Amino acid sequence: MLFPHYRQLDAMDCGPTCLRMISRFYGRTYTLNTLRNFTKYSRDGVSLLGISKAAESIGFRTMGAVLTLDKLTNEDVPLPCIVHWDQNHFVVVHKVRKDKIFVADPGKALIAYKQHEFVQHWASTQKNGVGQGVVLLLEPTPRFYEQEGEIESKLGLSKLYAYLLTYKKLLVQLLLGLLVGSLLQLIFPFLTKSIVDVGINTHNLNFIYLVLGGQLMLAVGQTSLDFIRGWILLHISTRIRLAILSDFLVKLMRLPLSFFDTKMTGDIMQRMSDHNRIEAFLTNTTLNVLFSLVNLLVFGGVLLVYSVPIFTVFILGSGLYAAWVVIFLRQRKKLDYKRFQIASQNQNQIIQLVSGIHEIKLNDCGTQKIWEWERVQARFFKLSTQSLSLNQNQQVGAFFINQGKNIVVIFLAAKAVLEGQLTLGEMLAVQYIIGQLNSPIEQLIQLMQVTQDAKLSLDRLNDIHMVPDEEPDGKPLMHYLPQQQDITLRNISFSYPGAGNVPVLKNINLSIPQGRTTAIVGTSGSGKTTILKLLLRMYEPDSGEIRVGEQHFGSLSHQFWRRRCGVVMQEGFIFSDTIARNIAIGDESIDLTRLAHAVKVANIQQFIEEAPLGYNVKIGAEGNGISQGQKQRILIARAVYKQPDYIFFDEATSALDANNEKVIMENLEQFFKGRTVVVVAHRLSTVRHADQIVVLHRGEIVEQGTHDELVNKRAHYYELVRNQLELGD
Distance between CA 662 and CA 673 in Å, rounded? Predict the structure, then answer.
């Protein structure tokens, strides 16, 4: 029995995919997304510790070790096991035979290595001149078999046809057009036979004129049908492409914010490109195949009537052609996975080159960045040569098979004419029919390749579609807040994704009173921003709970909660749109009174008034450049415009000059009245008037109180503010 093999969908998926293969080997199925979560998957991939913890979570007993090859191939070592490969990858060793070691590589395939080849990839250190490498040994426990595993409910080709069936009336029109077109084509071989056997043999020129006129009219009718079919196909394909992409974007909007911290932008963009292959499969390929099948049945039946031997040769030759193409499908699959990974890296490189052009120019590192891009292009070129070589090998074989089939058909037809079994006109008709049958066979063969491409694209899209929504449909969530709305954090601990990461927050207990301002201060990396991210439900705490009044935070709708919050984060985004649209970002119809008030609070009216088009000036990537200070003021205005109940500011005034900061803080003090505010800042002059100040140090609350109380303690807070506020010794 072949060892189960899965391909990794992303460059960082090797660890979870290895564990997925081993679980399947022992009879349990787990989705890649589930195993990612167990491994504490991050943008940097996973560690051996993460794989070990994930394996233990689903019922394996694990042990990490550094072994020599002799010990690894010892009969006492349980197989399959996971080994560290080329210092940046994980593979599964599932069998050892004599001098060969059998590996399941999630990035390639099932491969057998000779022992010296295996050691070159695996050994990372040497002991007494003998190479040794890292291995994770796994054995299932009874708990593994007690668990049911998972059923993979994913988007398949059958579900895709639901998009196509939406346009039943247009499909019926297309099918009628295909049937009429096939019948028109069916008449052509009989007309050809009539011209030769009747017109030429009887020297009847008028009959020939009549038949040629009929052929001309049929050709005009067939061309008209093709034009109509083209317009209908365009309408269907455009609608389907929009529907598929729209559903994908809607799914992206429903995913947790933490998902985007583990995905490369290039990966997501490449998955969007995969939709083009799916749309092509649903429209052009599927409908053309229907047309081909009709032609194949119609002309195949006519050919069978004319000559059974010729029909038999045609069927055998076409079957051999199809078998030849199937041989290359597995290699095409491997190349397609490589193409996706390299294309994703290329997308990331391009995005970095364009978005980071200022830093590149300022640091004079353009040459190095271009070299990085060229290295990706070199890999692309190598992949292209492999693809071209594969296609040419396939085409050469297909050419000889097709030409051999055609030569045999010509020979049999000519022989039949000489023996009186066919007339010369029937021979020409047979040749026409063979020509009409070759095209459907080509399209049916192409269907295998396009279907394979669509399935590969679907596998990658399922990687997105199978991620649980931030708000699952079956989970009831609250869309109201209790009357008492203090926020309470109880025993909160949190670590960012990645096994073995040091906790960013440790046993945090904090009360944020309703209608008051709470400031959080501390050195860089102390966990200030992380608290805000937990309060905005960008992440869920590892332990502990957050409550709003007596209501558990987890029972609140994410969307409802965020609509009640005004937020300014350190990395706020400015859209390519007008100033007004960037401030009133959630409104289709802008409330001008609220807009003017927000602009006044953010002290940005002078900048807007001096702009040529005022509020309608376009800013962002496609518009006018703005300074960091102007950007922060627009973000503050955006938060004020929402008229929120809760306000979360993370270094919201760090880029402002002292004068602007003083004016804005005075305006905000008025705006903050009656609202629950949490402010994170390094510039402590912005938080000294807060109702309570919380001091964090290495993820723990070390002090809490008002500015005066904390200064009098002469401890952590005093050290933070001494230099900034010139308190002296």
Answer: 17
